[in-house]
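Repro:
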Amino acid sequence: MSEFDLIQRYFTRVTPSAILGVGDDAALLQVNAGMELAVSTDMLVSGTHFFPDAEPLLLGHKTLAVNLSDMAAMGATPRWATLSLSLPSIEEAWLEKFSHGFFLLADQYQVELIGGDTTRGPLNLCVTIMGEVPKAKALRRDGAKPDDDIWVSGTLGEAALALAHLQGSIVLPQQVFVAYAAHLHQPQPRVALGLALRGIANSAIDVSDGFLADLGHILDRSKVGAEINYALIPTVCTSEQADAIMQRCVLSGGDDYELCFTSPTEYRAEIEKISATLALPLTRIGKITAGRGCMVCGTDGGVMQIKDKGYDHFA
């Protein structure tokens, strides 16, 4: 099978919202009137972001999900994507499952695959996603204000605990591991939440590299500080898990793909309505301060000393 046969068989579909999709030197797109184009790229590398023997169906899901999460964090409606694959060889069974997982999620969010690239090499998956957001309505990292509430969606820490189990750092009961592994392998992008937060959130980010690291990006861009109450952070971790590992996974583990956002206090009731409408827990865990840095208060009321803030590829 040639490179072009591979593209035609597994990754070519009708793209009704694109002027021109797969098959030319570039795609042609038309953004709707009054909208801005949001663009994001994420790369997943075998051995760094996923195990080499990862289930291809789930890997196809996650490859797109992490990009959809970026659109959610911007309050953008996802529209189009490109996919670039570096493959050691052509394995048709693997490609069938991977593309199926990718397109199941793409269809759910009406995302059209409009191009990309394939090459021989170590397994490497790269998506560029494009979405639309009304002019001046994008959620950004630089809008947090002192006294804003800090919120997170869903729960934090399960994906990191599942990874710790797979790496042998901890041993989880099988039933618990299966539940946590779903967070690791099939993250659910909070696109609907991002859309609902337009005009309500002052800033937002998706939690991918670790809660403290990602919140830190908001604090740096907005030139503010934060106070976090650890006891309020939503997690389903049990008391049977080692406290030190649990705290690291919740605060610094990453791979959650939940949204962290800040909002003025007057929107608390509105955010609670959004939570009910979406059937998605939204939890207020702290506030933005006028200073700099992030202080996390532990369950004993003292300030927690935290060395590991999150994942850095080059640290």
